[in-house]
């Protein structure tokens, strides 16, 4: 049995994508699951959000371009038990151009991740994608079994999700990503005091009743502060509402995956 690979992606920035990746990973490890987090975003926010340095040469960049490559040397232990990381770096931005020039350019990440998943060392592999639908995100989608979409509670949410769902359908129909399914939508930056958040959540639930996770992630100052300290919210403020929401997301996530 190979390890499930989950891409966390949204073409729009500022929707809580990296926050969700980091805190879902930490919440899963709290439930005694082992996780490999692959930071595929050249901004490397997931890397710094876990207290790791942005080190040149530490990312998957070289492995994506090599004909024969292993990711074993790229995997680092984080300061958190059961959570390993393949960090990112600014130079990874060059992969958007360089990978496009290679044969089988959509499947470069799948090729190098497959041996890691086959070892079944981890319960889950989570990929934090860039806030775009470029070559790196396309590689993540083609490597993944499932797609988790964080969505901000705003009126443009439905318009944004249609773009990424159309891409998923095209990748699936073309055979580039035959295994890929949309496994969940997480509503982020939810403010229960406003009609807007409630209306957007209701609209997404109406259109995607099976995919939406029941617990939204609240708008939270503590969630925003945690990355600057290199900590997931469970370590920074384990008793805040944001930590409770990500713990619930992890429980719901595991129910869907039954591992």
Written as H for each helix and E for each strand, in order along the chain, the element string is EHEHHEEHHEHEHEHHHH
Strand content: 5-15%
> What's the story with the biggest beta sheet?
7 strands, mixed
Kindly report how far apart the N and C termini lie. Answer: 11 Å
Mean pLDDT: 92
Q: What's the CATH H-level homologous superfamily?
A: P-loop containing nucleotide triphosphate hydrolases
Spans with pLDDT under 50 lasting ≥5 residues? none
Compute the number of helices.
11
In total, how many domains does the architecture comprise?
A: 1
Give the arrangement of secondary structure elements.
Blueprint: E1 5-8, H1 17-30, E2 35-39, H2 45-49, H3 61-65, E3 76-77, E4 83-86, H4 95-98, H5 108-119, E5 124-128, H6 135-143, E6 146-152, H7 157-174, E7 181-188, H8 195-207, H9 221-225, H10 233-236, H11 241-257
Helix pairs in contact: 1-11, 5-6
Describe what you observe in this structure.
By secondary structure, this protein is of the alpha/beta class. The protein has a single domain, classed as Rossmann fold (3-Layer(aba) Sandwich), CATH 3.40.50.300. Helix content is 41%, strand content 14%. It is built from eleven helices and seven strands. The chain has a seven-stranded mixed β-sheet with strand order 3-4-2-5-1-6-7, sandwiched between helices. It is globular, with a radius of gyration of 17 Å. The relative contact order is 0.19. The model has no long low-confidence stretch (mean pLDDT 92).
């Amino acid at each position: 049995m190979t390890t499930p690979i989950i891409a966390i992606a949204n073409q729009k920035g500022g929707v809580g994508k990296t926050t969700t990746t980091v805190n879902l990973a930490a919440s899963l490890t709290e439930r005694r699951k082992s996780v490999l987090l692959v930071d595929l975003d050249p901004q490397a926010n997931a890397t710094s959000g876990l207290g790791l340095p942005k080190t040149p040469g530490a990312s998957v960049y070289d492995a994506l371009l090599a004909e024969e490559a292993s990711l074993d040397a790229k995997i680092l232990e984080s300061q958190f038990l059961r959570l390993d990381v393949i960090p990112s770096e600014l130079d990874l931005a060059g992969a958007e151009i360089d990978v496009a020039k290679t044969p089988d350019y959509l499947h470069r990440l799948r090729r190098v991740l497959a041996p890691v998943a086959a070892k079944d060392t981890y319960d889950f592999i989570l990929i934090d994608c860039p806030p775009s639908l470029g070559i790196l995100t396309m590689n993540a989608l083609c490597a993944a079994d499932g797609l988790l979409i964080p969505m901000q509670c705003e009126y443009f949410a439905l318009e944004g999700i249609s773009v990424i769902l159309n891409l998923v359908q095209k990748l699936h129909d073309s055979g580039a990503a035959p295994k890929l399914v949309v496994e969940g939508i997480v509503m982020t930056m939810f403010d229960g005091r406003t009609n807007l958040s409630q209306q957007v959540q209701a609209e997404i639930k109406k259109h995607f009743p099976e995919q939406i996770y029941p617990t939204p992630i609240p708008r939270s100052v503590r969630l925003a502060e945690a990355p600057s300290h290199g900590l997931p919210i469970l370590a920074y403020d384990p008793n805040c509402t944001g930590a409770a929401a990500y713990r619930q997301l992890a429980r719901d996530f595991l129910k869907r995956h039954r591992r």
